[in-house]
């Protein structure tokens, strides 16, 4: 799972002025490796000006399509997204890591559920995969989507969403929320906030009818919507959140005052692809990921911000402090999973296993 594979781009399609949909050609011998679940993401790698640049992008195709496609929105100052939007075309080869992520819930054809989703901007990408896959896999289930944008011209996958609505008229409820374009119903004007979500719950949907909610967009929007849903009675365990690295502020690690009862250094063992590699590092000064890279290990990572979960591994021995965590659920942490990009060792010995991460 830690390996990158060279995949050729088979198609690049403009979705909006600043967003492209990129489809990869997966050779037969790699189809099992690149089989995915709805809501998962790909880590892409290329070299830009001799720099190794990696980014994670959510898959936007349904499981049933048999196509591997991601959307890349140009972000201001974004090195990879700018390069991709300006450069990518059919035939170009990118290094791609197999699909990862847990932004989904198990599906069953016998289910009769009503799913709820809130997306803003490019947050529609994994949500689209989830909606399409779910409506095809569960013929008795329904989906309600609130999708926030500035204006109609910035709606990503607008045609695809329209086609989806036409195909599932009775089972898909699609609501657009515009912040800079006036709509007839005032409730659907403005940004998706906690208060706006509370209004939706009061006037538009009954939370008691909803089984699972998916939220993807800017951090403040997602936290606000999650709070509104919980205050209305939805269990936190039924609320799935996916955060994009571009939407969080940069975090600077501040070393803690350590009780130096043991050594100042930590012996770290990394288990990856069946190999055991051991190195030493100072306690609480740099992350396991950065120290591993410095030691020459081809560590698995993408965002380095505690968001994408690409660097997820299991803590087998020792203790670490995690600075920030936007990717792991409480139950994953309870089972011993950590994000190596945010993990700072505080014991004399630490063992982490990437092979148990999937």
TrEMBL record:
GO terms for molecular function: 2 iron, 2 sulfur cluster binding; flavin adenine dinucleotide binding; metal ion binding; oxidoreductase activity. Its cofactor is FAD; [2Fe-2S] cluster. InterPro entries: 2Fe-2S_ferredoxin-like_sf, 2Fe-2S_ferredoxin-type, 2Fe2S_fd_BS, Beta-grasp_dom_sf, Cbr1-like_FAD-bd_dom, FAD-bd_FR_type, Flavoprot_Pyr_Nucl_cyt_Rdtase, FNR_nucleotide-bd. Keywords: 2Fe-2S, FAD, Flavoprotein, Iron, Iron-sulfur, Metal-binding, Oxidoreductase. The keyword rRNA-binding does not apply. GO terms for biological process: phenylacetate catabolic process. This is Ring-1,2-phenylacetyl-CoA epoxidase subunit PaaE. It comes from Rugamonas rubra.
């Amino acid at each position: 799972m830690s390996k990158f594979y060279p995949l050729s781009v088979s198609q690049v399609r403009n979705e909006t002025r600043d967003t492209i949909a990129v489809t990869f050609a997966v050779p037969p011998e790699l189809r099992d490796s690149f089989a995915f679940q709805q809501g998962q993401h790909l880590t892409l790698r290329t070299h830009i000006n001799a720099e190794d640049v990696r980014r994670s992008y959510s898959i936007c195709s349904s499981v049933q399509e048999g196509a591997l496609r991601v959307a890349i929105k140009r972000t201001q100052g974004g090195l990879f997204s700018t390069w991709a939007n300006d450069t990518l075309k059919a035939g170009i080869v990118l290094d791609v890591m197999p699909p990862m992520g847990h932004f989904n819930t198990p599906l069953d054809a016998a289910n009769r559920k009503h799913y709820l989703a809130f997306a803003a901007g490019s947050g529609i990408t994994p949500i689209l995969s989830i909606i399409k896959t779910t409506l095809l896999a569960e013929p008795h289930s329904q989906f309600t989507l609130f999708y926030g944008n500035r204006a109609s011209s910035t709606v990503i996958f607008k045609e695809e969403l329209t086609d989806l609505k036409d195909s599932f008229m009775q089972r898909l409820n699609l609501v657009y929320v515009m912040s800079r374009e006036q709509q007839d119903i005032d409730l659907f004007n403005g940004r998706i906030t906690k208060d706006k979500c509370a209004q939706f719950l009061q006037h538009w949907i009954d939370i008691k009818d909803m089984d699972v909610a998916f939220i993807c967009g800017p951090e403040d929007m997602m936290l606000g919507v999650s709070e509104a849903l919980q205050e209305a009675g939805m269990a936190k365990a039924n609320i799935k959140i996916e955060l994009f690295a571009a939407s969080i502020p940069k975090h600077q690690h501040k070393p803690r005052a350590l009780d130096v009862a043991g050594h100042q250094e930590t012996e770290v063992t990394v288990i990856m692809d069946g190999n055991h590699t051991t190195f030493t590092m100072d306690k609480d000064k740099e992350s396991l990921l950065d120290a591993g890279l410095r030691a020459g290990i081809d560590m698995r990572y993408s965002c380095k911000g505690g968001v994408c979960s690409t660097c997820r591994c299991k803590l087998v021995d020792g203790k670490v402090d995690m600075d920030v965590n936007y990717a792991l659920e409480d139950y994953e942490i309870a089972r011993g999973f950590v994000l190596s990009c945010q993990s700072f060792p505080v014991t004399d010995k630490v063992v982490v296993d990437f092979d148990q991460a999937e």
